[in-house]
Amino acid sequence: MDRGHIPQQSLEELLGDSMALEAEQVQRMNQHTHLSWDMEQLSEAASLMLENAASSSGGEPAALDADRKLGDAIQKEKDKVSTWRPSIKCSTSPS
Fold first, then answer.
1. CA 5 from chain center: how many Å?
2. What is the DSSP-derived secondary structure letter of residue 93?
3. What's the gap between Cα 87 and its chain centre?
4. DSSP state for residue 56 in the 8-state scheme
5. What angle do CA 50, 53, 55 make, to 5 degrees?
6. DSSP letters along 32-79, please?
7. Exposed, middle or buried by CB within 10 Å (0-12, 13-18, 19+), for 75?
8. Which burial class, exposed, middle or buried, applies to 35 when counting CB atoms under 10 A from its CB (0-12, 13-18, 19+)?
9. Mind listing the pLDDT tens digit of every residue in the chain (95 residues)?
């Protein structure tokens, strides 16, 4: 068999694999967008909770501490999600 000749079946398999990888990449990018939106909503909610607690008279210090911890946890998750995008692009780039 000629080394320059690739059987049609092999080409079809490679094309199918390529299409599956492309679909997976799109799905991961959509998932990243969705997670980023969720994190942004949680962050905004935590900020509003902190503002409301700070502006209310006689607010409990324990509640403020819990809100700060929640805000910190949300920010850490948001930072973690933002690091996924570059790794997704790198892992799905053609070799």
1. 42
2. S
3. 10
4. S
5. 105
6. HHHHHHHHHHHHHHHHHHHHHHHHSTT--HHHHHHHHHHHHHHHHHHH
7. middle
8. middle
9. 455 677 888 889 999 999 999 999 998 888 888 888 888 888 888 888 877 776 765 555 666 677 788 888 888 888 887 776 666 655 555 54
